[in-house]
Every structure is written in structure tokens, then in C-alpha cells.
Amino acid sequence: MSDARQLLEEMNDRSREVFRRVVEGYLLTGAPVGSRSLTRELSEKVSAATVRNVMQDLEYMGLLDSPHVSAGRVPTQTGLRMFVDGLLEVGDLQTADRALMDSTMSSNSDDVAGVLDRIGQTLSGVTQGASLVLAPKHEAPIKHIEFVNLGPDRALVVLVFADGHVENRIFTPPPGQTPSSMREAANFLNSLVEGRTLSDVSTVITQQISERRQEIDTLAHAMVESGLAVWAKEGEGPDRLIVRGRSHLLNAGADEVDLERIRTLFDDLERKRDIANFLELADEGEGVRIFIGSENKLFSLSGSSLVVSPYMNADRKIVGAVGVIGPTRLNYGRIVPIVDYTAQLVGKLIADRS
């Protein structure tokens, strides 16, 4: 059991209700919640002084914070995490939201990128946040792999797929690599990967390296791991990551500090910093995941929240992800089912077109 869940179970009914109402009030308005307003809403009739004492205890526990002297309370990141894990009530997908997302799939176009772009735009409009759609990586079987030395600290791996598609990925090779070690690594890989997709390769490579470690030297071993560990190269084209609706974040009534954080978020997105990690966040299992503030390395500096879900191809392999970014006071209960449903739609699209 997580520390947050254990702490929630140890709280008495009054503390739990005060905490829940503070968080719900903050998520609804974005403003601190005071003891007087809470006193009128609690199921148990208690004085404002009693409520203040409870709020002080919750603040001492690290669940609430006072943004200003004599002001109400807002949840901390820890408090939001505990609310999401233990008290969040996820509603059903609203009929209007479902209809809007379904409308993106009405086109018979074979342009998957265009459909994904429409899905991103619609998801942004429905949630009033910024949407992210990580397009699927190429899933055709690999025909050939080659390493090309570009300098002391740069190399190129060329991936030739059975359908004629070619991808070039620049990476940093291990120190001391030689042309012979690069050829050896390529020969080793080519003996294993033909007919397999990138989704299959990682597991196979790990197993084979363990079983045949003596057949390749240390440098070749490192080349193999370095060359295939990265799914996406730095600065990959914009069709890989589709970002829509960033203006919604600017229209969310943010103050000057929040605007600076949003600018930081935009800078991260434009530079595609750690975008490869975006898929990894969702790659640990099915279902929607929620990352609040610094829990997500990609958006830690901006203090944003990310609601993300992976989608799968026809073989039930995770090939991409969709998500919504917004301030920490997102309406999680409404957005979670929207993101979940959108991931299902994208998965069906990819499966049907494959």
C-alpha cells in the first residue's frame, strides 16, 4: 500500500471530508478554500474554528498549503496525488464528448497522420487543455541494419524495413568504438532481426546477448544496446508528436507565475525534450495514468499535470499514446474517461489501417 493511501485510511471521517472538499473546491475554482465556506458544506455541523484546526492538521501532514497569510487552503502535489489515488470519482463518458470524438473517425481517408491531427484538435477542444498524440512508430518487419561512423562521438544506425521504408537514427556510440566493432555489431543484429518488428527486437536482443555474450566483444555489446535503445531520435519531425490546443492553457486564467510555467512547458514541447519518455510513461500497462507536477520528468518544471493512456495495434502491442496536459487543477474525473476512450479510438484506427 502506498504511503498516501495508508495516510488516507488513517484519517478520521471529518478530516477525510474536509480534505476532499478542499480539493474538489480547488479543482472547481482554482482558488483557495476557506474554513467558513467549508463549514456550510460539511455533513457534520461543526464550527469554523474546528474546521480551521482540521485544515491546519492537514497542512502539517503536507496535504494542504496556505498560499497567503490568513487565506484558505489549496492541495499540495502530495495532496492531489492522494486525492487522485484514493478519493477521485471517475464519471462515465458524457454522450456529447463521445459524439465529438467519434466524429473524428468519420473520414475514409488513408492519411493516418491527418486523422491523428483531427483527433488531437478535437481532444484539445473537448478537454480545454493541450492534447498530445504520439504517432505510432513504424511496425513493418526489419530487413537490414547498418551502423555508420560519423565521428568520435556520433554514429548513424540505418534501419531498412521489408516494405522499403528506411529510417536513419543518430546516436552516441560507446567510447573507443572501431569500424570493426560496428560491423560486428551490425552482423550480430542482422542475424537476429530479419522478419521482426522493432517491438519484437528489444526482447530478442536482450535474450540473445545474454545467451551469446562470448560471441561479441564489449564494444559490440554496447553498440547493440546504444543503437536500439532509443525509439525516437532527437528533433524528430513534428508528425511524430502532435500537439494541439496550447492556447487553452493560456486562457485558463493563469497569473504571471503560471504563465511563465506554461512558457517553460511550451519550450519543452518545441524542443521535444524527453519525448521518448512519453511513451515509456504509458508503457507499463494498460489504462489511463495521471502524472502530477514533478512526477512527470517532461513537465516537471512547468508544474503541469498529464493524463495519458497508451494505445495498441492489432497485435495488442503498445505503439503510441494520447494525453492531455493542463494545470494541476484539471477536472480529472471527466478527463480520464475521455482520454481512455480516445486511446481506444486511435488503437482501432491503427489496427484497421495495418
Automatic annotation (TrEMBL):
<keyword id="KW-0678">Repressor</keyword>
<dbReference type="InterPro" id="IPR036390">
    <property type="entry name" value="WH_DNA-bd_sf"/>
</dbReference>
<comment type="function">
    <text>Negative regulator of class I heat shock genes (grpE-dnaK-dnaJ and groELS operons). Prevents heat-shock induction of these operons.</text>
</comment>
<protein>
    <recommendedName>
        <fullName>Heat-inducible transcription repressor HrcA</fullName>
    </recommendedName>
</protein>
<keyword id="KW-0804">Transcription</keyword>
<feature type="domain" description="Heat-inducible transcription repressor HrcA C-terminal">
    <location>
        <begin position="115"/>
        <end position="336"/>
    </location>
</feature>
<dbReference type="InterPro" id="IPR021153">
    <property type="entry name" value="HrcA_C"/>
</dbReference>
<dbReference type="InterPro" id="IPR002571">
    <property type="entry name" value="HrcA"/>
</dbReference>
<keyword id="KW-0346">Stress response</keyword>
<dbReference type="Pfam" id="PF01628">
    <property type="entry name" value="HrcA"/>
</dbReference>
<keyword id="KW-0805">Transcription regulation</keyword>
<dbReference type="GO" id="GO:0003677">
    <property type="term" value="F:DNA binding"/>
</dbReference>
<dbReference type="GO" id="GO:0045892">
    <property type="term" value="P:negative regulation of DNA-templated transcription"/>
</dbReference>
<dbReference type="InterPro" id="IPR029016">
    <property type="entry name" value="GAF-like_dom_sf"/>
</dbReference>
<comment type="similarity">
    <text>Belongs to the HrcA family.</text>
</comment>
<dbReference type="InterPro" id="IPR023120">
    <property type="entry name" value="WHTH_transcript_rep_HrcA_IDD"/>
</dbReference>
<dbReference type="InterPro" id="IPR036388">
    <property type="entry name" value="WH-like_DNA-bd_sf"/>
</dbReference>
